[in-house]
Amino acid sequence: MSQIPYLPAIETASAAEINEYQNQHLRKALVYLKNHSPFYQDLFRLKGVNISRIKTTADLVHLPVTTKKDLQERNDDFLCVPRSKVSDYITTSGTLGDPVTFAMTDKDLDRLAYNEAISFTCADGHPAEVYQLMTTIDRRFMAGLAYFLGIRMMGAGIVRVGNGIPELQWDTIRRIRPDAIIAVPSFILKVIEYAEQKGIDYRASSIKKAVCIGEPLRNEDLSLNTLGRKIMEKWPLKLYSTYASTEMGTSFTECGEGTGGHHHPELIITEFLDENDQPVGEGESGEVTITTLGVEGMPLLRFKTGDVCRHYLQPCACGRNSMRLGPVIGRKNQMIKYKGTTLFPPALYDILDTIDYVANYIVEVYTNEIGTDEILIHIGSHSNIENREKDIKDHFRAKIRVAPKVRFHTAEAIQKLQMPETVRKPKKFIDSREKYPNCEFLF
Q1: What's phi and psi for 81, nearest 5 deg?
Q2: What is this structure's pTM?
């Protein structure tokens, strides 16, 4: 893995060649799990799984799925190596529940670096570039470490600024003149806002592109969503959207065509499943379900991520023939049934992002007195906007036909709720349906 191709050969291979490659590596992965994983040894025995019968990725439907609950309840049993081989410990962000610990060996860290190196080159990366990292590399966070390792392996430069502190971000841009930033999209707007307040000509800066993490930039039709358009209107950067999770140790990153995140078939097998754990067709929404390839410490088999996406199989104009992943439509556990309408939080975010006087927000869902889902949106602003409630609700009625409840706060109060000290990325959604039934979450 030390030689990083700009375009890995497997990604330009034919669909049949990619499929055969994955079939071979799936069989190796199953043997490794049977020999080394306490969790999968028990699962195979309890479910009567004979791995010799699993020959192709199409046979995966005959195997049980792995869930977040499995990882939470039997975390240690997923470890396939002695603790003496573990080089780094990471925890998930806990978006869908209690965080889970992942142990990584030296080999896993090399794999992680390789993934990011080919992902950044997919995003038109070049060894001559310098990247400014606007996300944390500490707090047991995989992504920040992955970006650092991948850019280093790609041969490019990196400056580790961390998240927050727009003043330090602009000081770094002035001093080092990086070519690109790695950031959460909503934070880019804060960086722009600070520059406007301080009279910084950000359009004339050295920054020409942004690799965006943690929040979607695109609608289901792959056009830029409201957040993406707001960035582009202010600062016409080249934007690259990404999708990843700690569990998969792999990322899906857009190329310059902007038509979905590219799959790395040498690193992961990806399925899209319906409510009955059966595959859905191309262009249909399904839960992203992954089987890791080449992971030594804590490999996973048919792990259901909770993210609902669409996938596309047509070759990309960039030359890659691997599958492409569309933006996250929503998280399965966050689906809302509201007044006869099925919603995912990103649909609400996209509307709120169009309203200029809304500085920030948190969407809360709870169970009302008749046992159905209720939506309460906590809106932060820099001025008194309580007289704007009807206008806000009209925005929702125009787009989704229903209007949630609204409560107003200062922008500072919402910021504290979005980014408490232990959180690594902004929290925009609170699900109080199980923890606080029949009442609103109490701030």
Answers
A1: -130, 160
A2: 0.83
Q: Say whether both 351 and 320 belong to one domain.
A: no
Tokens of 5: 């191709």
Structure tokens at 351: 């509307």
Pairing of strands 360-367, 101-105: unpaired
Domain co-membership, 270 together with 345: no
Q: What are phi and psi of 332, to 5 degrees?
A: -55, -45
Taking each helix axis from N to C terminus, what angle separates 226-234 and 185-198, rounded to the nearest 10 degrees? 30
**Is residue 437 situated within a structural domain?**
no
Total domains present in the chain: 2
**Same domain? 130 vs 191:** yes
pLDDT digits (tens, 9 = 90+) for 71-99: 999 999 999 999 999 999 998 865 545 67
Q: Are residues 323 and 413 in the same domain?
A: no
Tens digit of each residue's pLDDT (9 = 90 or more) over 190-220: 999 999 999 999 999 999 999 999 888 999 8
Burial code of 105-115, b = ≥16 C-beta within 10 A, e = fewer? Answer: bebbbbbbbbb
Domain end, chosen from 304, 330, 356, is at 330
Say if residue 321 is in the same domain as residue 339: no
Would residue 439 count as lying in a domain?
no
Let me know: does 92 contact 245? Beta carbons within 8 Å: yes
Rounded to a whole number of angstroms, the CA Rg of the chain reads 22
Give the domain CATH number at 209. Answer: 3.40.50.12780
Q: Which of 330, 346, 381 is the last residue of a domain?
A: 330
Question: pLDDT for 273-311, tens place per residue?
Answer: 999 999 999 999 999 999 999 999 999 999 999 999 999
Is 436 inside a domain boundary? no
CA–CA dist 428, 346 (Å, integer): 10
Look-up of token digits 């939470």:
72
Unique residue bearing structure tokens 């008194």: 384
- Taking the alpha carbons of 100, 106, 111, 115 in that order, is the dihedral positive or negative? positive
**Does residue 196 lie within any of the structural domains?**
yes
Q: Provide CB contacts within 8 A for 416, sequence distance 6+.
A: none
Write down the pLDDT at residue 442. Answer: 43
43: left (phi over 0), alpha (psi -120 to 50) or beta: alpha
* Lookup: tokens for 32: 């490794």
Find the domain containing 108 and state its range. Answer: 1-330
CA distance linking residue 289 with residue 279, whole number of Å: 10
Q: What is the pLDDT of residue 3?
A: 47
**CA nearest 306: which of 72, 143, 77?**
72
Phi-psi region of 294 (alpha: psi -120 to 50; beta: other; left: phi over 0): left
